[in-house]
Amino acid sequence: MPHAPPLGALLRQYAAGSALTCEPVEQGLLNRGYRLRTTRGRYFLKHHFDPETADPAAIARQHRATQRLADLGVPVAPPLTGTDGRTVAVVGGHAYALHPWIDGRHRHGGQLSTEQCARLGALLGVVHASLERVMPAEGRTAAKPAAGAERAETAAPTEGADPARGADPADTFALIDRLLAQVRRHRPSDAFDELARHRLLERRALLERHADRRPPQGGSEGWVHGDFHPFNLLYRDGEPAAIVDWDRLGIHPRAEEAVRAAVIFFVRPLGTLDLTKVRAYARAYRRTAGATPSELTAAVHRVWWERLNDFWILRWHYERGDTRADPQFPAASALAVWWTREYESVCEAFAG
User: Fold this and answer.
1) pLDDT for 97-145, tens place per residue?
2) Element at 235 (helix H, strand E)
3) 341 burial class (0-12, 13-18, 19+ CB within 10 angstroms)?
4) What are the boundaries of the region Disordered (predicted)?
């Protein structure tokens, strides 16, 4: 098995028996996970591999947060405590955590009823409200980058973006030119190159028309999950069983996380949003989080601008040679165009 974790040392540290099977979990681009069965039970072993989030102190903070949320009844899967009283095991310079195995499956918005979409929005509202109770209050007013550094599930701020205002269109135009040059140089040219070129030219024209709509400073900040999307939520018997992957826990505009999550859950394959489901989700979120319609409207604008300036999938493809996110590109790139055209309808769905 490539990158096999040091099971013997880890299981001794957790007194979790002897390994019977250990299988990699496929989802996730940054950290590594394993489905582990031992003589003591079933577990999820997480290798905190991403250098941005692998600091043991930060991981321990995430672990304390999930334990406190669990105490409040939020569906999470706190890690197990090792024999040394710690939840983070560092072996060979790598950080690991052992969690109970949660039976469940991931569901995207198309698999949820309207009522389940409302419960999803309410759940995220409960997460935000509960984090307010269990996390420290310091640092709430500090400007932070938008939640969602480069990864498959959420949009990334454009290189050079001002965290308080979002991407500068001048930087985006330069990035588009650079990516277009890389597309032209790619040989042999293929269907992905053709779509990339089309979307880059289309997006440049959109930005030229809307460059004066760069958003002002963001809204109310607080502790957020930071990566709330279908692959980080497990369902069992139609109900949320566990919110997982708290690596991006941090202080960011709360309403923007609510909008980003909805955009990921409710995007359709052709790059449109199911606004009926968005409306049910957003109403429930506003109720449980105590957010106002105007806060959601402002967040819609900021996330729209973020998406309009976002090319992280193309940067992974052409600059890193990493094609794992390529299947997301058709819908993600079409969404920015559709959202611009249907801007008022999207705002109404989140605020109505």
Assistant:
1) 999 999 999 999 999 999 999 999 999 999 999 999 999 876 444 433 4
2) strand 233-236
3) exposed
4) 138-168
Question: In angstroms, rounded to a whole number, what is the distance separating the alpha carbons of residues 331 and 307?
Answer: 12
Full DSSP string of 66-107 = HHHHHHTT--B-PPPP-TTS-S-EEETTEEEEEEE----B--
β-bridge pairing 233-236 and 221-224: unpaired
Cα 135 from Cα 61, distance rounded (Å) = 9
Q: Which bin fits 25, alpha (ψ -120 to 50), beta or left (φ > 0)?
A: beta
**Contacts (Cβ under 8 Å, ≥6 apart) of 108:** 230, 265
Rama region for 312: left / alpha / beta (φ>0; ψ in -120 to 50; rest): alpha
Q: Give CA angle at 286 (282, 288), nearest 5°.
A: 115
Whether the Cβ atoms of residue 52 and residue 149 lie closer than 8 Å to each other: yes
pTM value is 0.89
Chain centroid to Cα 52, Å, comes to: 15
